[in-house]
Amino acid sequence: MANPLYQKHIISINDLSREDLELVLATAAKLKANPQPELLKHKVIASCFFEASTRTRLSFETSMHRLGASVVGFSDSANTSLGKKGKPWRIPSPLSAPTLTPS
């Protein structure tokens, strides 16, 4: 069976159905029981926190590193040009563009 989350860009919990969420939790349980430290080797994952959230950001980034990924991003949009321009921003769908675009 194909993974229904393959190449699905998840921006919010609202992007997941109940079945999707159950799949995420089941996959997390499998990874916890059988760690795969090179699963995301040679992958770059963006970590974009629009509000300060140190514990959440660090736990997400630690998990990404444990799976072998490289992490780029920011932890507070106020410290980026996004926050300084005062414009509303939206994330393109799907999240494939290298920059954010004004809404």
From TrEMBL:
Name by which UniProt lists this protein: Aspartate carbamoyltransferase
Species for this entry: Klebsiella variicola
EC code(s) of this entry: 2.1.3.2
Assigned GO CC terms: cytosol
Entry-linked Gene3D superfamilies: Aspartate/ornithine carbamoyltransferase
Disordered: annotated segments: 79-103
Listed PANTHER family: ASPARTATE CARBAMOYLTRANSFERASE (PTHR45753:SF6), ORNITHINE CARBAMOYLTRANSFERASE, MITOCHONDRIAL (PTHR45753)
Compositionally biased residues, Low complexity: 92-103
One BP term from GO: amino acid metabolic process
Pfam families, A to Z: OTCace_N
Single GO term (MF): amino acid binding
